[in-house]
């Protein structure tokens, strides 16, 4: 009887202790939780560095970060301080301090230096504030988990979705040609995008659609890929590439329904199971808590200079409308197609559109496409009302609302300049581009081309390149569209734009 009571008391104690431990876990969650990776892209390849949460702050291990950026030649560590020799620079850090000394400069961070598992840890904003002082050129979007170092120029993409009679078609427009490889895994489709680095405008695209639920971008192992989640497991998947690998079309349709005649005709993917990275070596040893994963880079082919064409409006935003029902969004898309063809005929440029089909990306997304593509020119196409006059083509550069406190003397990298001030460094070249366009438009018979003007065209403000808006008139609710929809008129305008771009400079003619 005594033994039974003792055993019962022991069980009660264990139950109480278990209850207390559960409460502690609920009220005081673990302070360190392994989460994502940070990817460093450089001409050497890429490095994957694990991110660790300490409190509510993302941290990176210091030495792997520095080796991903360049080369550490040595370091001296004391109990509360550390000196790292990085090329000709010397970095000095103190545990618990929010400042890092880089050479003779002192750089302030938002969070202090920490230690974890015997490693010195730096907060994620170390990438923003310190790394640009260590590398000659960097490109980093605040909040992202990848940085591009040196001459690395990432590709990007835009996404649109349209309905089919028995399904939906997803269109992915890439800024660079892509050789995709698709596999099926756990009810989702994974689209590998080759070895070139990507900077997505959005990490995830979610759709209110019965056939397509979500499209997410992932490169946490250094291998860029898109992950497509269908709305149902009972759907057929068809994919194809068009436009020389710059467009991926994916049809998700009901079983028994054939893909659209104008759409993909490829068979559903037959590769199943766990999809590995695009390169054979990527399946080698996984990264440990403090390790980095290195892969050899593939030398990208030389790319032609990018001209970004931005057809205004799209989707529910139709823009101006003529009396006979011509919509601005449709008109400028037609003009964009002709300008693209005229520029392609020069063999000197590649054209990057900001929207494909009847999509309506926001202004930041349009600007980001231009900045990721490292455009040599950005042209936003519009149409509007000019009263009862004849056809008119006006060109605008951006007009800032007020002088800034500090005007940069040369173009500043987007990641380290205030987003709303980026265009200021390019205003002179934007004016030169506007003048080149006006000169060509003025040569066209029967068309009025006023001198270039300044206007607060918001889409121009954050473009890190020479940027202009072109407005075709007259598109008015009181008049028919008339000559604006004429094929010959649109062709004249498009060829004039191509000639202006060539006169402006930036392209190298190809045979």
In short:
This protein has helices spanning about 1-25, 60-70, 125-130, 130-135, 330-345, 365-370, 425-440, 485-505; strands spanning about 30-40, 45-55, 55-60, 70-75, 80-85, 90-95, 100, 105-110, 115, 120-125, 140, 145-150, 155-165, 165-175, 180-185, 190, 205, 210-220, 225-230, 235-240, 245-255, 295, 305-310, 350-355, 375-385, 390-400, 455, 465-475.
Give a verbal description of the structure.
- By secondary structure, this protein is of the alpha+beta class.
- The chain has three domains: 32-149, Copper amine oxidase-like, N-terminal domain (Copper Amine Oxidase, Chain A, domain 1, 2-Layer Sandwich), CATH 3.30.457; 157-274, Immunoglobulin-like (Sandwich); 306-504, 3-Layer(aba) Sandwich (Aminopeptidase).
- The protein is 20% helix and 32% strand.
- The chain contains eight helices and 28 strands.
- It has helices spanning 2-27, 62-69, 126-129, 131-134, 328-344, 363-372, 427-442, 487-504; strands at residues 32-42, 45-54, 57-61, 72-77, 81-86, 89-94, 99-102, 105-108, 114-116, 119-123, 138-139, 146-149, 157-164, 167-174, 181-185, 188-192, 204-206, 212-218, 225-230, 236-242, 247-253, 293-296, 306-311, 350-353, 377-384, 392-398, 453-455, 467-473.
- The strands form five sheets. Strands 1, 2, 3, 9, 10, 11, 12 and 22 form an eight-stranded mixed sheet that branches. Strands 24-23-25-28-26-27 form a six-stranded mixed sheet, sandwiched between helices.
- Helix 5 packs across helix 8 and helix 7 packs across helix 8 (487-504).
- The longest helix is centred in the N-terminal third of the chain and has 26 residues, at 2-27.
- The chain is globular, with a radius of gyration of 28 Å.
- Mean pLDDT is 80; it is low at 1-8, 21-35, 266-302, 404-417 and 507-511.
